[in-house]
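Subject: mismatched residue count in predicted assembly?

I count 1218 residues in my input, but I want to confirm that the predicted structure covers every chain. Input:
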Amino acid sequence: MDALRLPVLSVITWSPFVGALLIMFTARHRPRAVRLIAAVTTGVSLLLSLGIYVAYDREGAGFQFYEKVALVPPLGISYELGVDGISLLLVLLTAIIIFAGVFASWTVKVRSQEFYALLLALVTGVFGVFVSLDLFVLFLFYELAVLPMYLLIGIWGSSGEIRPRGIFAWAYRETGVGTKEYAAMKLTLYLLFGSAFILVGIFALWVHAGAGSFSYLDMETAVFAPGVQRWVFLAFYVGFGVLAGIWPLHTWSPDGHASAPTAVSMLHAGVLMKLGAYGIVRVGMGLLPEGAAELVWLVGTIACVNIVYGALSAMAQTDLKYVIAYSSVSHMGLVLLAAATLTEAGLNGSVFQMFAHGIMTGLFFALVGLVYEKAHSREIGRMGGFGRVMPGVATAFTVGGLSSLGLPATSGFVAELLTFMGAWRSEHRWWLFPAVVGTFLTAVYVLRVTKQIFWGPESPHFRHLEDARGPEWVALVLLVFVLVLFGMAPGLALGPVDTATVPLLARIVGP
Amino acid sequence: MRLLVWLPLLVLALPFTSFLLLAVVAPLRRAGRVAGAVGIAAIAASLGGALLIWNEGFRHTATWAWLPGDGGPMATVGLLVDPLANAMLVLVTLVSFLVQVYSLAYLADEPAPALGRYYTYQSLFAFSMLGLVLSPGFLQMFVFWELVGLCSYLLIGYWYQRPAAARAAVKAFWITKLGDLGFIIGIVMLWAATGTFEFATLFAKAQAHALAIPALGTIMFLIYLGAVGKSAQFPLHVWLPDAMEGPTPVSALIHAATMVTAGVYMVTRAQPLFALVPDVLALIGWVGAFTALLAATMACVENDIKRVLAYSTVSQLGYMMAAAGAGAAEAGFFHLLTHGLFKALLFLGAGAVIHAVGSNDIFRMGGLFRAMPQTGLVFLVGTLALAGVPPLAGFFSKEAVLGGVWAAHMTWPFVMLALTAFLTAFYMFRVVFTAFFGPATAAGHAHEPAWAMRGPLWLLAALTVLLGLRLAAGGGEAHGPAWLAPLSVGLALAGVALAWAMYQRGALDPRRVAAAFPLSVLDALARRRYGLDALYDGLYRGFVLALSRLVGWIDRYLVDGVLNVASAWTLRGGDALRRIQSGVPQDYVFGVAFGVLFLVVWARLWMR
Amino acid sequence: MSLGAYLTLAALVFAIGLFGVLTRRNAVGILLGIELMLNAVNINLVAFARFHGDVAGLVFTLFTIAITVAEVAVGLAIVIVIFRVRRTVDADRLDLLRG
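Triage response: the counts match. Full output below for your records.
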């Protein structure tokens, strides 16, 4: 890459944004052109992500493909990019998911121009967070990734029905629970609530570092007092944690993901939730090692709640999208639990789980989108016997399900195994048991849902359904392939990740 | 010799290639019989390779890095070829090959895409099982352990449109997964204590007494739980009888000869570790013997021919485990091999019968020996072998197991196993007398199956006889006290005699026997499967699902409720404050005037 | 006369003006009330200028008078426009800003 002298990371990051502009200004009323531009610009990102993945120097480690342009020198704000093993994998994940997402939402008809433009702008935000080394710019990208969601869900989303019950029933009637507007508002407010904490945290670091710079690399060398470390870590944990779906601040996720259109659910559950976990690991643990070491008990314990509680909630759902959404809550628990173990296996597992779950949940939402579009129903109870009419979708769903319950030869297994290994080596050994129980509960609800939807006698209502078609196959095959490939050869992903987690860990618990 | 190094890899890779081809190349898969040919060719080549390896008595270990980390590979994958694996390789490839050939005729009426799917799964299974056998460490074993479980799930659910099959597949997966939870926790704990998953390293440490881990007992027990699930030991045996919803050849291959024996194979493989924890070993022996007896009693009251065989499999797996628990793992493994042959034979024979009669109920059969003498003959050979009648292979292995248990001074397990031997002969001959002899019923039109089905049957029967004869000629090493052989033969013959008296001669009325006091209780319990299925069902519905509904409700209406209340209050607050904004300028001026007045007064009084 | 007497007078005028603003329903009446309040301020300014000998107060008063004139002109113009549009100058019914 060096030979090309190309600001690779900038190209990866801004390519979708350029796509969004092109779509807005050149492709009015030309839906094919819209899709073509989207596919090409995200394709560029995907290819370059693969390129840097291969070109990344595993021996040299550290942050590579470095770029820096000063923006506001007096305040120490600069446009500073770079990737290490962790962000490298997540950039690849983002590229894969959005590329697949473009194909999965091929059939969006209403205002597809604006839809794709917003989607692509959002992706630029996500890429930006993963590659930014300047906390201020990181925050800007973060907001860019969060805000278009409101419009995407509010306009292209779908409403469900939730009956007001319980002692708070009056509040449900007044807030319009279940509508897409409610979901969009809830998601946006929750995430803005979180980002307020993040902003405060970032400013606190800037003040206490005293170097007058927002650069991650500069702050890494600064020494923060233990008291500061503690509360700033807590602020980052809550702030990023909202996006990562920590209990009990997770309820935006089921409603939001259930209401969002296919590609948005894919991107949101697949990548944006990882963004929260990434923030906790990169900014929280990376800059505040002592605070992290002191508070991991909290992170891990809440993660345990997430795992079991999310799995049980998923089991109770009757709406397919809610099942997948709650499963994300459960799996994000695994991500954070693995990170909280503060062991090499655990941190590797955490990053790998981010990747594996991103792909798997992207696949799930793509499939649910397909099923919904054809069957016009998300009610699990009304479906049945789809395996006969849509064998391809059934197969892909099964592979995704098996990965989520941690079946070997899929990425999910590697992630869970590393989590277990890390948990038992951590200071809180009992974390292993909620994690294991979570995988069993996952097996229960995933297989139950699979059986209900795809197996069993064919229902006369759904005989006319079709299997996936052309562009949709691109999404499914790509995601299934990645899921299985990285499951069989985890070294592909863990090689670079390990080079980043070891120094990170050394800062927290000592070499 | 150079070739031999690559041979195990080739044996493993062939079924995988076949799987990949069938999975990816859709037209090939949809071609049905062509897909079958691909699968059979691959497994036949594997069988050839396995025979070659076995013949050479080849030993080899190779590992490659799999997970990076911990300053080296954190975990490895590889191949471990030794006599234990060699024997298992031959069994797995042989039975796989025969079953795949047999299926070609058995499933001839299936639509082509479904048949292609069947062979895709079969190839995946062969690959997974071979990978399990060749595992050089616990981790790889677990990987393939789960994969064979997946194949079992997929193949039980092969007729996925039947609700019963779908239910059985899911149940099998869940129940075995329960055991696997223990397995994975165990190997993770073992790794945390030793830093390795590899057998070679672990065994070397064990032999050098360098494995002083305080929790080793717990760890080995947890690992054993995996075997409890996979090898259908009490109390996780409930999935195996239901697994009979799959096609019969699948039952022969996966749920009799190979996959279910993986637990026994694992315990045998890890014998050096289990030997360090005598308590766990004793538990394995007791549970094995108990499982053997319990399953035998259930087999006695079952009318479905496949379920009788399934209970019999559970029972024989108990035998193998009991041997392993008694420290006679070789005897258990020996029984695994012989059982693999004759149980596959019995299942395939039963498949031929079901194919001909169109029912699983033995009381709807009858007089089949005349209609299909060849099938009858081979079924009889299998039955005699299972009953432990010399000089068939089953006699020797069963005697070895009993001798091993007796030598370990496990008297009560020995008694249970001896009783099981009696019951085994009884329930198997109950099937034989009812289905093959006796008055012909609705089976008048039954006929011998196609050659593709008869061939494997004859081959398995011949192997059962030849293996037995060879063992007999070898003098059959004395496995226990002198009275053991007469006892076991006597028990078997007594069982046969009782079955004859009840179901052939009619001298004893089965219903009256079952109604006699101590037996009546047992009969009722066995028919209800000792309430275990109900217990699991109750736990699932009454605990897991109920808990999930509760949590789901809490999340939706309490956790989210608090949020919605906050949001509703905000809305209401805004609504209330909205009214201040009357739109009448005079109200605003009024507010300003009184605000100023208030400030002035406040400043005067309190702001000194 | 003392400064207090002027200030009291100004306060009374201001209060009367405020009362008018608050109670009058006719927009023209409200404008007159505002006029009174502004003039109360003027009285204050002039009184302080006189007693403190500071001419700045007188200058301010001149400004205020000028602005008051402008204000009345703009205010009456608005009232007329409102009357044209709504056919009323009743302040209670001019509540388009109501929340």
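Residues 532-578 of chain B form the longest helix (47 residues). Marking this ticket as 'not a bug'.
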